[in-house]
Amino acid sequence: xxxxxxxxxxxxxxxxxxxxxxxxxxxxxxxxxxxxxxxxxxxxxxxxxxxxxxxxxxxxxxxxxxxxxxxxxxxxxxxxxxxxxxxxxxxxxxxxxxxxxxxxxxxxxxxxxxxxxxxxxxxxxxxxxxxxxxxxxxxxxxxxxxxxxxxxxxxxxxxxxxxxxxxxxxxxxxxxxxxxxxxxxxxxxxxxxxxxxxx
Length: 199
Ligand SMILES: [Zn+2]
Fold this sequence. Notes:
By secondary structure, this protein is α+β, with helices and mostly antiparallel strands. The chain is built from eight helices and nine strands. A hairpin with a 5-residue loop joins strand 4 (about 75-85) and strand 5 (about 95-105). Helix 1 crosses helix 2 (about 40-50). Zinc ion (ZN) binds near residues 87, 156 and 158.
């Protein structure tokens, strides 16, 4: 059983569970009803999972690099990295995928590390534009490649399940740095790799 005094980021677990009961009451429920008794505990556990990115340092994933790549200096692309995030405006899910490419300058990372970087930023409250820029910035900063491209496509449940109720729409954001920004051929090669109609 979870310790009610267990703290996370300075908040006791029972305080977090009480906040869930408050929202249940606000919505019109009786939190003491049998079916809801364990709900605050489950919600708090789910939050621990959905927002584990705050305890993750994306830089660490990029710091172990391989330099013995036999002079490979062409573009490296990891596409279709699926992620789940939450918008910081409504705390509603953002479900999507990211495509990440870079032009190495001697340093190459294990390909799963790019997915870890996406995950570390996704598992926080986010704005899609900000997340796209953060992924590109940390790759540029740690790997110092000749260029970075990040494209994110996602649907926002705050838009599909409430508000304007538009289903099937997705938002696309991109951040291009270095050669991906300055060289149209590099950018197009990247967009073609990820199947983007702009490529
Ligand atoms: Zn939202």
